[in-house]
């Protein structure tokens, strides 16, 4: 539909972030996403998922774990590197 309305419009990125309450690295990652005006869906450990689910999805047990357009970017340092090299 977007292509019909505006063929030159960029498709919005689909962003998901796995976080934990009180995690400073999670706060940093969310701030970077907000800086780049990327809305995201946040899943919170213990509320929306378990460590077992995180391991199954991301292959990691640490947070944050950021996915952009279905691709695992990783934690806050990996997200910083992503923004340094990607045209967002």
TrEMBL record:
<dbReference type="Pfam" id="PF00462">
    <property type="entry name" value="Glutaredoxin"/>
</dbReference>
<dbReference type="InterPro" id="IPR002109">
    <property type="entry name" value="Glutaredoxin"/>
</dbReference>
<keyword id="KW-0813">Transport</keyword>
<comment type="similarity">
    <text>Belongs to the glutaredoxin family.</text>
</comment>
<feature type="domain" description="Glutaredoxin">
    <location>
        <begin position="15"/>
        <end position="73"/>
    </location>
</feature>
<dbReference type="InterPro" id="IPR014025">
    <property type="entry name" value="Glutaredoxin_subgr"/>
</dbReference>
<dbReference type="InterPro" id="IPR011767">
    <property type="entry name" value="GLR_AS"/>
</dbReference>
<protein>
    <submittedName>
        <fullName>Glutathione S-transferase N-terminal domain-containing protein</fullName>
    </submittedName>
</protein>
<dbReference type="InterPro" id="IPR011906">
    <property type="entry name" value="Glutaredoxin_dom"/>
</dbReference>
<dbReference type="InterPro" id="IPR036249">
    <property type="entry name" value="Thioredoxin-like_sf"/>
</dbReference>
<keyword id="KW-1015">Disulfide bond</keyword>
<keyword id="KW-0676">Redox-active center</keyword>
<keyword id="KW-0249">Electron transport</keyword>
């Amino acid at each position: 539909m977007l292509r019909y309305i505006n063929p030159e419009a960029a498709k919005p990125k689909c962003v998901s972030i796995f976080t934990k309450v009180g995690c400073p690295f999670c706060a940093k990652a969310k701030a970077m996403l907000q800086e780049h005006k990327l809305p995201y869906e946040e899943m919170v450990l213990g509320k929306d998922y378990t460590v077992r689910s995180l391991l199954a999805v991301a292959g990691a047990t640490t947070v944050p774990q950021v996915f952009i357009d279905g691709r695992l970017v990783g934690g806050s340092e990996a997200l910083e590197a992503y923004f340094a090299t990607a045209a967002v």
